[in-house]
Design brief:
The complex is a heterodimer.
Chain A: E1 3-8, H1 16-29, E2 34-38, H2 46-49, H3 60-64, H4 70-73, E3 75-76, E4 83-86, H5 99-112, E5 115-119, H6 126-133, E6 137-142, H7 146-159, H8 164-167, E7 173-181, H9 183-187, H10 194-201, E8 205-210, H11 213-220, H12 225-228, H13 233-245, H14 261-266
Parallel strand pairs in A: 1-5, 1-6, 2-4, 2-5, 6-7, 7-8
Antiparallel strand pairs in A: 3-4
Helix pairs in contact in A: 1-13
Chain B: E1 3-5, H1 11-24, E2 34-37, H2 46-57, E3 62-66, H3 70-73, E4 104-106, E5 115-118, E6 123-125, E7 134-137, E8 141-147, E9 150-153, E10 163-168, E11 172-175, E12 178-181, E13 194-199, E14 202-207
Parallel strand pairs in B: 1-2, 2-3, 4-6, 5-7, 6-8, 7-9, 8-10, 9-11
Antiparallel strand pairs in B: 10-13, 11-12, 13-14
The chains are: A alpha/beta, B alpha/beta.
The structure holds adenosine-5'-triphosphate (ATP) and magnesium ion.
Adenosine-5'-triphosphate binds at residues 9, 12-18, 40, 45, 121-122, 179-180, 209, 211-212, 215-216, 219, 234 of chain A.
């Protein structure tokens, strides 16, 4: 049965788009039919991170307004057959996105895809509520810092009130994806620890993605990190998260600081 | 003893039954705290506003609501029920000064940005109250989790109300109009189980030894 997943956070720049692309590509590599949808009207990004910016002809709003068929707007990935992108409009007015229109598109996608992953814009305004409204499952992307955690708490409150499931009195599945985690800074107390974030948000942990150059490199070449460097630390962490999203139980690895040769020889006194 | 009403859709039929009851014993609801269990209406939140109006038209004032996700009531609750305040996403209830107030039990965390206002009695939260969230109670507030947001107890003049929490990280504590902000709470109590109460014109915040 199709699953609609919203990737959301409240706070901007925490890694929603990166995570949408990486999880989408990981699920598609596992043979699932996947579509990733960009809901960031006017500030679209997902096409760049997916390396499809030059192939965008029609977008979500064209489909909603009946100017294009869904099949015309969907872009199939060149690397993974089962991965698709439904881009956002860079030029249209945000108001063109309507709850009803989005609902129709999602209903049509449900017939064809296993995973429909919605990349939410930042904030708690309409764009974000449109992206979450039809979701069965939410991936709440959070960085280990207080402002991001509080914004996530706010978003979780909205997930429990402003979604179709909540309105029916049902509960939407919520998962925490802790991104840009820097083990050294967490150890030095410059970032919140994993257990602190979990205590505050009290939703199950989907994965911990380390801060990594690989992510920047991947987005610069327009390839999700699970495709460009599947064996890198963030690549593996996203693969594990994708497995957990499919219901597998895996041990959680908390990324640790790799100690250099000097610190191995001299312990903590160096530096 | 509070009377519990359990309205169901279709609402007109249910109200018909209620009217029959009022006909039989006109004083049935007089002076009694009335709680509405809205669980049967949880799927149709748009009916809730109409229901409250229909009850008010029959002179029935609710002292509490139960059986519905706090969030579901959402914006649809008439603001006058929360003592003149508009609540973004919370439960609200009227304040008919019931002789024996009903309590409000929430068994999930109260998230940042949510405001729970219940002037009819105590509020108990089984879970945490997030930073930027708020609980306002006519009675005491009991939090079986971490209090990071604001707790306003004894709203409407109840100086005997208290605030209890399993872990104190509060942004603000208030009882019957007296308040303390995070800065005025002794640092040694942070992260500890604690209670707040009034001793005369002073608020005492104390741990449990
Ligand atoms: N694990 C990571 N390590 C290093 N950089 C990262 C990581 N995750 C994301 N980034 C970088 O952070 C920036 C923001 O990421 P991204 O665009 O995915 O965030 P977003 O939440 O979608 O932002 P917005 O709210 O603007 O839509 C990008 O430059 C991205 O490459
Ligand atoms: Mg983005």
């Amino acid at each position: 049965m199709a699953k609609v997943v919203v990737v959301t956070s409240g706070k901007g720049g925490v890694g929603k788009t990166t995570s949408t692309a990486a999880l989408g590509a990981a699920l598609a590599q596992a043979g699932r039919m996947v579509v990733v949808i960009d809901f960031d009207v006017g500030l679209r990004n997902l096409d760049l991170v997916m390396g499809a910016e030059r192939r965008v002809v029609y977008d979500l709003i064209n489909v909603i307004q009946g100017d294009a068929r869904l099949s015309q707007a969907l872009i199939r990935d060149k690397r993974v057959e089962t991965l698709h992108l439904l881009p956002a409009s860079q030029t249209r007015d945000k108001d063109a996105l309507t709850q009803e229109g989005v609902g129709k598109v999602i209903a049509e996608l449900r017939e064809k895809f296993d995973y429909i992953i919605c990349d939410s814009p930042a904030g708690i305004e309409r764009g974000a509520t449109h992206a979450m409204y039809h979701a069965d499952t939410a991936v709440v992307v959070t960085n280990p810092e207080v402002s991001s955690v509080r914004d996530s708490d706010r978003i979780i409150g909205l997930l429990d009130s402003k979604t179709a499931k909540a309105e029916k009195g049902e509960r939407i599945d919520k998962h925490l994806l802790l991104t840009r985690y820097h083990p050294g800074r967490a150890a030095r107390g410059e970032m919140l620890k994993v257990e602190d974030v979990l205590e505050i948000l009290s939703i199950p942990l989907l994965g911990i993605i380390p801060e990594s150059e690989e992510v920047l490199r991947a987005s610069n070449i327009g390839t999700p990190v699970t495709l460009s460097s599947p064996d890198s630390a963030p690549g593996r962490a996203y693969f594990d998260a994708a497995k957990r999203l499919q219901g597998e139980t895996l041990a959680m690895m908390v990324p640790e600081e790799k100690r250099g040769l000097m610190s191995k020889l001299f312990g903590r006194r160096v530096a | 003893m509070a009377l519990v009403l359990v309205p169901e859709a279709p609402l007109d039929d249910w109200l018909g039954g209620l009217d029959a009851q009022i006909q039989r014993s006109p004083a049935y609801f007089a002076g009694k705290p009335v709680v509405a269990d809205l669980s049967a209406l949880a799927a149709v939140p748009e009916l809730v506003a109409g229901l409250l109006e229909a009850l008010a038209a029959r002179g029935i004032r609710l002292s509490g609501i139960e059986g519905i996700e706090p969030a579901v009531t959402g914006l649809d609750l008439p603001p006058l029920l929360s003592g003149g305040r508009t609540i973004a996403e919370g439960i609200a209830a009227a304040d008919p000064a019931p002789p024996e107030p009903a309590g409000l039990l929430l068994d999930q965390p109260v998230r940042s940005g949510q405001s729970v206002v219940f002037t009819g009695g105590d509020v108990t939260v089984v879970g945490s109250v997030g930073s930027g969230a708020e609980i306002v109670a006519g009675g005491s507030i009991h939090i079986y989790g971490t209090l990071r947001g604001r707790a306003v107890a004894g709203m409407g003049g109840n100086a005997a109300a208290r605030i209890f929490c399993r872990r104190l990280e509060a942004e603000l504590l208030a009882i019957d109009g007296l308040y303390r902000t995070a800065d005025d709470i002794e640092p040694a109590l942070r992260g500890k189980p604690a209670q707040a109460y009034l001793a005369g014109e002073q608020m005492v915040v104390a741990g449990f030894e």
